[in-house]
Specification:
Largest sheet: 9 strands, mixed
Helix content: 25-40%
Protein name: GNAT family N-acetyltransferase
Radius of gyration: 22 Å
Organism: Mesorhizobium erdmanii
Number of strands: 16
Oligomer: single chain
Strand content: 25-35%
Length: about 400
């Protein structure tokens, strides 16, 4: 059955959408410093805004939202201007493409949604989302909505994907994790005072927390490292069993991975894959990590019944690297494998939601037949984690 949209003639996004509460228009270069300052105040809790932090944040926003060669290829981000002419709010939007039953769909990946509490009266967030919904997109998605954004979006008929809203943590070296948390809260504390004690404790508890192979036999399945180009070449094949899946154009996925590699908070970006004895790829993964820190999963994908073996490979790589543990976003397809690991903890990590006027899209989302999160989200951006200006 061919894909049929309920909105055969999408309405182009208005240049300016005005109401009694203010107006919404596309992000402009002259807005960047004000948006960057608001971002640092809301999401980095900066009471004292340094010029270098604002400048670095603004330049990064220029790259991902306004650069024609960036991930969107066009400016889709929005700002709300209140009746007094001040910045009231901002909505970061990245454009992507999906496909479903052979039809190509334009998708809006929603990133930071923020309002200035000094000028907003609770209207900026809903106004920005309503303006976005009047655009030409076939589906709207986010994988990082906080609880405030959830409250705005649910009445607007967003479908929540509960299994994707959780984060998971596998601890390898508990004292190293505690040491990193303490240094994060009190940066003035010397790591030379904390690390020796942490290493001694972790050596004592090594047998309890050391990961073991759960789902594969070492003589049948092995893991290998790969580079970004190899990962970009193989990932599209592994996602082909989703009905609603990304449609990356030539060169688009390598450019996206190059931008993702600019994140600094959790160490360099590493790639790996799992293979059977004949050399056939069973799955692949990408994660940020460095010795002594928490590894952070960007993407994992496997075919058929090979999620467990791929998860084994990911965890083994992070352990061998000397990471204190690993964190990642859950997916319904490998939740059963996660449940089989000891020392794995789950928490709410951010709302994953999808909205579409197309019936076939909502059906695919309802059945969980959608590839979402990771590179089809906004957690790969520096805005998700990096501390700008330091």
């Amino acid at each position: 059955m061919p894909l049929v949209s309920t909105n055969a003639e999408p309405v182009a996004a208005p240049t300016v959408l005005a109401t009694q509460h203010g107006s919404v228009r596309p992000l402009a270069a002259e807005d960047l410093e004000r948006v960057a300052a608001l971002f640092l105040t809301k999401f980095r809790r900066r009471r004292r805004l340094l010029d270098r932090a604002i400048a670095e944040t603004a330049e990064y926003m220029r790259k991902i939202y306004l650069d024609p060669a960036g991930p969107s290829g066009a400016n889709n981000a929005l700002v709300q201007i209140n009746p007094q002419g001040d910045l009231g709010g901002f909505l970061g939007v990245l454009k992507a493409r999906y496909e479903l039953n052979g039809a190509v769909l334009d998708a809006a990946i929603i990133g930071p949604l923020m309002a200035d509490p000094g000028t907003d009266h609770g209207s900026a967030g809903p106004q920005l989302l309503r303006a976005l919904h009047q655009g030409e997109f076939d589906l709207y998605l986010t994988d990082s909505a906080n609880r405030v954004s959830l409250a705005f979006a649910r009445p607007m008929k967003y479908q929540l994907l509960p299994a994707h809203c959780l984060g998971w943590t596998r601890i390898f070296r508990p004292a190293a994790v505690a040491s990193a948390v303490v240094r994060g809260k009190w940066p003035s504390l010397s790591r030379f005072a904390l690390d020796p004690c942490a290493k001694a404790f972790d050596a004592f508890t090594k047998k309890r927390f050391e990961p073991s192979v759960q789902h594969s036999s070492s003589h049948r399945v092995h893991r290998e490292s790969m580079d970004a180009a190899q990962f970009a070449e193989r990932l599209p094949t592994l996602v082909s069993d989703y009905s609603l899946r990304p449609r990356w154009q030539d060169g688009e996925l390598p450019r996206l991975l190059a931008l993702a590699s600019e994140k600094r908070a959790d160490g360099p970006l590493h790639f790996g894959g799992t293979y059977d004895e004949a050399g056939k790829m069973l799955g692949c993964y990408a994660f940020y990590g460095q010795a002594g820190g928490m590894a952070n999963l960007l993407q994992i994908q496997a075919t058929g019944s090979h999620w467990g073996a791929t998860l084994d490979g990911l965890i083994a790589d992070a352990w061998t690297m000397g990471c204190a543990g690993i964190i990642g976003q859950t997916q319904s397809r490998f939740m059963p494998q996660l449940f089989s690991y000891k020392n794995v903890f789950f928490r709410y990590a951010g709302g994953t939601m999808v909205r579409s006027r197309i019936h076939e899209v909502t059906q695919a989302v309802r059945s969980g037949d959608i590839f979402i999160g990771g590179l089809m989200g906004d957690r790969w951006t520096r805005l998700s984690s990096d501390d700008f200006g330091r």
